[in-house]
Design a protein that fits this description.
Blueprint (H helix, E strand, L loop, with lengths): L5 E4 L5 H13 L5 E6 L2 H8 L6 E6 L7 H13 L2 E6 L11 H23 L3 E10 L14 H4 L5 H16 L2 H4 L7 H25 L3 E6 L6 H4 L10 H13 L10 E3 L2 E3 L3
Parallel strand pairs: 1-2, 1-4, 2-3, 4-5, 5-6, 6-7
Antiparallel strand pairs: 7-8
Helix pairs in contact: 1-10, 3-4, 4-6, 4-8, 6-8
Bound molecules: NADP nicotinamide-adenine-dinucleotide phosphate.
């Protein structure tokens, strides 16, 4: 067991994830440990270079691997007894040229099932005063979904229920039936809604106990960022850099928990209404 603070960021070898890892390292102390994780060991090793402050350890964590989250959680439990800060940030990059029917399997595996596995594995490990944060988007609200589909993601109370809805949507995209229904064509929208629904489902059980111990579980929107992922869809040349976008997310870690943020989607310190 250690008294150091332990932080973990997924999808951290580039973009916002690396900026989060760098910002955590800068704002923590030399006794603390930041796990900068990704799916490729060479890219992870390169990303660790030049980061300073806390100890930054690059490790493999492929969120698409169904066993990876529980394995990594076990490792952190053995090494440190728990974890203090977790950012679920990994995203599979897709572009307008990709056929949703082709990519929806791996896309949901990384962005959605990867998120629910992370929440299941790490929620029991987060220590008092900790943070468990899923990087979503302001697209992750029911406002962006046809009303006829709202009940799919509204009021869910378990991560299994969220997974079931994601699987149904994935299958509808894969067999083409989503196109003739009310589903939006932009797969990012249901995916981000399901990430926020997952946070809401877990939060519905943990709110009172977590707030008593100063722990925050939330989804966040970093705003538009200039990364290759967003550049596939929009002109982001004038958008904030990953380091700039990371500041508001890091503030949720280093400032006291605001109870109204708990279980919600938070953007620049404000709750984005779910519906
Ligand atoms: N960019 C924006 O404008 C924007 C806006 C709103 C929300 N967001 C959200 O912010 C987060 C970061 O976005 P970004 O623009 O920084 O993305 P990015 O630059 O594409 O970075 C994505 C990261 O995820 C990693 N990744 C992909 N598949 C993985 C897997 N199976 N296991 C582990 N890591 C994996 C990538 O690793 P590789 O290098 O190996 O591919 C990369 O490090 C995402 O959740 C995104 O949806 C972004």
């Amino acid at each position: 067991m250690t008294t150091s603070l332990i932080a973990l960021v997924t999808g951290a070898n580039q973009g916002l994830g690396r900026a989060l890892a760098a910002g955590l390292a800068r704002r923590l102390t030399a006794q603390d440990v930041v796990y900068l994780t990704g799916r490729d060991s060479a890219r992870v090793a390169e990303a660790v270079e030049g980061l300073s402050g806390a100890q930054v350890r690059g490790e493999l964590f492929d969120v698409a691997d169904p066993e990876a989250a529980s394995r990594f959680a076990e490792r952190l439990r053995d090494r440190h007894g728990g974890v203090d800060i977790v950012f679920g940030n990994a995203v599979m990059r897709v572009g307008p040229e990709d056929d949703p029917r082709e990519i929806i399997g791996p896309y949901t595996q990384v962005n959605n099932f990867g998120t629910t596995r992370l929440l299941r594995a790490f929620a029991p490990l987060v220590r008092d005063g900790g943070r468990l944060i899923v990087v979503a988007s302001s697209l992750g609200t029911l406002h962006h979904l046809a009303p006829v589909l709202h009940q799919r993601f509204d009021g869910l109370s378990t991560l299994d229920q969220v997974d079931k809805q994601v699987a149904a949507w994935r299958d509808a995209v894969a067999d083409g039936s989503a196109r003739s229904g009310a589903w939006p064509g932009f797969v990012n929208i249901p995916s981000k809604i399901a990430q926020v629904a997952a946070v809401r489902a877990l939060a519905s059980h943990r709110r009172a106990a977590d707030l008593d111990r100063g722990t925050l579980l939330a989804a966040v929107c970093p705003g538009m960022i200039n990364t290759p992922t967003s550049a596939k869809w929009w002109d982001v040349s004038g958008a904030p850099s990953p380091a700039e976008a990371a500041v508001a997310l890091l503030d949720l870690v280093f400032e006291p928990v605001q109870p109204e943020h708990y279980g919600q989607l938070v953007r620049f310190g404000q709750v984005v209404p779910w519906k």
